[in-house]
Amino acid sequence: MRNGLYECPSCGNLYKWKKSMLSHLRYQCKQPPRFECTYCPIKNYQKGHILRHLRVHHPHLSPLYFDRKFNTIYRL
């Protein structure tokens, strides 16, 4: 803990909450983004962010996203 912040031991990112740092370490640190838009090159670590992207940027298309963990395309 440094200056009231938690530092990722792997990459040095700082977080206000220990839970946030542990989540980063578990799901994001030095890993490729898990979720991808099927219509453009946007990628993200959180499914909710890809779903929001689909609603905002591709509202006229069927909401499809790719999940790298299961190597599958999903439809909402």
From TrEMBL:
Family matches, as SUPFAM superfamilies: beta-beta-alpha zinc fingers (SSF57667)
Cited SMART domains: ZnF_C2H2
Record's keyword terms, sorted: Metal-binding, Zinc, Zinc-finger
GO molecular function, one term: zinc ion binding
Span of domain C2H2-type: 6-33
Ribonucleoprotein found in the keyword field: no
Gene3D superfamilies the UniProt entry points to: Classic Zinc Finger (3.30.160.60)
PROSITE patterns reported in the protein's UniProt record: ZINC_FINGER_C2H2_2
InterPro entries: Znf_C2H2_sf, Znf_C2H2_type
Domain of life the protein comes from: Eukaryota
Full protein name: Longitudinals lacking protein, isoform G
Source species taxonomy: Eukaryota, Metazoa, Ecdysozoa, Arthropoda, Hexapoda
